[in-house]
Design brief:
The protein has 141 residues and is of the alpha+beta class. Helix content is 43%, strand content 34%.
Length: 141
């Protein structure tokens, strides 16, 4: 009897742990702005391309891949590391399952003891495909 109770408690604990882990590890794609920011954080800040793919429609966005490559090259050339911030996020809904998200990507670094920063406005297209996903993105000109 005691063994049955202990086994049931252990199985319940394992099940609860599994559910909590899945909730914590699952990507948040609840809104277009969250999907875009999560994608940019994964692609540019943590540079985790596998995680970044969780937030896209069909895989990596080439313009963001190009920006990441450019940042990595400049870090090597200047012997520093860049801090990436996503700012001024604005969402414009295009119906119930499509949105345009604009954001500013700020790259900051200290070079020769001087803090420097560059900002670029970007435009992203997102779609609700069983959760919001980033389908396209490009710098605004």
């Amino acid at each position: 009897m005691v063994a049955s109770v202990v086994a049931a408690l252990c199985l319940g604990g394992v099940a609860a742990g599994f559910v909590l882990y899945n909730r914590a590890a699952a990507p948040d794609r609840g809104s277009p702005d969250v999907a875009v920011v999560s994608y940019l954080q994964a692609a540019l800040v943590s540079r985790d391309q596998n995680r970044a793919r969780l937030f896209t429609c069909t895989g990596p966005l080439q313009p963001i891949e190009d920006l990441r490559t450019q940042v990595e090259r400049r870090e090597r050339e200047l012997g520093t590391s860049f801090s990436i911030n996503i700012e001024n996020i604005v969402v414009a809904m295009n119906g119930s399952s499509a949105a345009t998200v604009t954001a500013v990507i700020r790259r900051s670094a200290t070079v020769d003891g001087v803090q420097q920063s560059l900002t670029d406005p970007w435009r992203f297209e997102a779609q609700d495909r069983d959760g919001w996903r980033v389908c396209a993105g490009a710098p605004e000109r």
